[in-house]
Inverse folding.
């Protein structure tokens, strides 16, 4: 049901029944490398284009998520997903492979939580027993689309981020009383487009920070929650600069979060040794998707967190909008997940 | 609730409370010219790029839809929409303007019904009191993205279609017993990706026909409806070739529809005098959106139809996927609308 201005509460607590998390070679060497189900050792993944490799990531992650959910493919009703490539073709081709009735989504790097919010809504109200949702990105495919082909070896500003090669998918389904140690979706806040006039595609985190702030702040207001309600709040891919900016904006508004309860998927995924490439942090639609459906849910199942809020952030620009002098419209969607035990 | 394999029935019958339909100069001269709320007399619409003109179409249509719904902007909860341009920037920039919490959708030309199905689901289950949904396209922006800049004056095959310049938006909200002569959404069938191996982006209608067939056939099965249930079934933008193909596929499966009860938005929108440009018919995400939210709803309100099924079809290709030798994955979503009186 609608709560406050732009949030939903899910009283039936749809469960995340299984996840599939697939990554590339660079992610395998990252801090969370062991939390991927599959790590490819080559960016090409035996495909003849990076976009086709992107499709493969999605296909793999969907298959693994269904398998780990303990359900069969034919028990899934819908597939809600997207990616960053023009006309989200990697996801649409993966939808051809899995043959599930398909909702194509585009929320840039916020797609992971756009999908999870909708998936939870559908399951909560009996629109589906099980749906598959998630998001993905591929470093080489995305970099050449939004910036430069990686083969050019161009230098980037320290504000720039590293696009994650990875897909994170989940099966969301009805929860039952028998479940223990099960993550369930309890609420969501859908973001508005916020554009503070920034236009540098090599500083996306800074551009997205006000959108993340707006959604997190609205989430607390809509649900009338105390600021210490969550064991941790995770932003999607703000990186160092954006995450610090978002933290400051929250503090200024009186949202006093301890720093160790406010993390960013883009700052968690890579190892310190990768910093010279990663610069300000990880990004891409696959960033929050792989870190949440992998690492964060693992931490929850090990009882490190009981209640978390994931706020995935998206920069809704295109190369064309940048060339036409537009600023970067940004958005963030937040989903609240609790451990049922 | 879920009905059959991939359909929803909306027992609370969400209402289409108001619509906004905006078109370009060529659409104004078409057969349905008088059914647009606003017709621009220039493709540029006083903007300095066709993509910015696309954004303007969406902004206008949203404003008009809200006004005609008799509601205020701040009574709207969500905006679910998309278009064909890379990263759907026209829609995202319009979402910046209207400041509504935003779900970006990509279903190519099926986006209109992807949005209406989700909008109806959200309203039916109290996820929103009012949402705005719709889709758009702009001939010059889309043609240069998917085929060639129109300024080249390139010749096209007779199988090709003409991208509609237009946006169709609707306010979907709770229906009440007091309403009369009100179109309400009663059901939806979400399509799977169907790809019969066609790869010619100048014959999209032919590629999309099997997807339209699959969704319409599944719709009848899921709801166990007799084939004469609807006063008319409208496909989105199959054009002459695709529409004839889809009709044949339906007849072969025993779905005996009289030809005058099976129409195509792409064949309705333009005048016979425009045929030399239009070729096989209109297309684009704005095609089914403007024809349904304009013409078809007008016909319903004049009691020409009481029950209709709109099956919007989408070709989920990109220029890049075509260049990489991929075939065209297609999809279709169908929404059933009835007149409440």
């Amino acid at each position: 049901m609608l709560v406050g201005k732009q949030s939903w509460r899910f009283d039936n607590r749809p469960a995340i029944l299984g996840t599939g998390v697939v990554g590339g070679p660079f992610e395998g060497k990252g801090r969370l490398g062991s939390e991927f189900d599959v790590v490819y050792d080559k960016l090409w993944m035996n495909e003849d284009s990076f976009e086709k490799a992107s499709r493969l990531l999605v296909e793999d992650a969907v298959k693994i998520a269904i398998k780990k959910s303990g359900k069969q493919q034919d028990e899934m009703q819908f597939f809600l997903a997207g990616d960053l490539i023009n006309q989200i073709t990697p996801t649409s081709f993966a939808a051809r492979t899995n043959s599930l009735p398909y909702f194509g989504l585009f929320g840039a790097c916020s797609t992971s939580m756009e999908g999870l919010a909708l998936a939870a809504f559908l399951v909560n109200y009996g629109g589906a027993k099980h749906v598959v949702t998630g998001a993905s990105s591929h470093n080489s495919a995305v970099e050449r689309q939004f910036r430069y082909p990686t083969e050019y070896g161009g230098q980037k500003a320290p504000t720039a981020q590293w696009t994650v090669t990875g897909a994170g998918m989940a099966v969301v389904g009805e929860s039952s009383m028998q479940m223990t140690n099960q993550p369930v979706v309890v609420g969501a806040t859908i973001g508005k487009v916020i554009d503070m006039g920034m236009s540098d595609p090599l500083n996306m985190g800074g551009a997205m920070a006000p959108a993340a702030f707006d959604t997190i702040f609205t989430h607390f207001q809509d649900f009338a929650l105390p600021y210490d309600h969550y064991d941790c709040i995770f932003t999607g891919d703000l990186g160092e600069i954006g995450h610090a900016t978002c933290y400051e904006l929250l503090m200024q508004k009186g949202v006093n979060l301890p720093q160790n309860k406010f993390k960013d998927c883009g700052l968690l995924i890579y190892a310190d040794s990768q910093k010279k490439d990663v610069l300000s942090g990880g990004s891409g639609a696959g960033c929050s998707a792989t870190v949440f459906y992998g690492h964060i849910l693992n931490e929850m199942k090990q009882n490190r967190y009981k209640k978390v809020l994931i706020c995935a952030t998206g920069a809704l620009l295109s190369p064309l909008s940048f060339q036409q002098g537009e600023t970067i419209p940004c958005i963030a969607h937040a989903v609240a997940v609790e451990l049922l035990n």
Observations:
- Chain A touches chain B through 58 residues (CB under 8 Å).
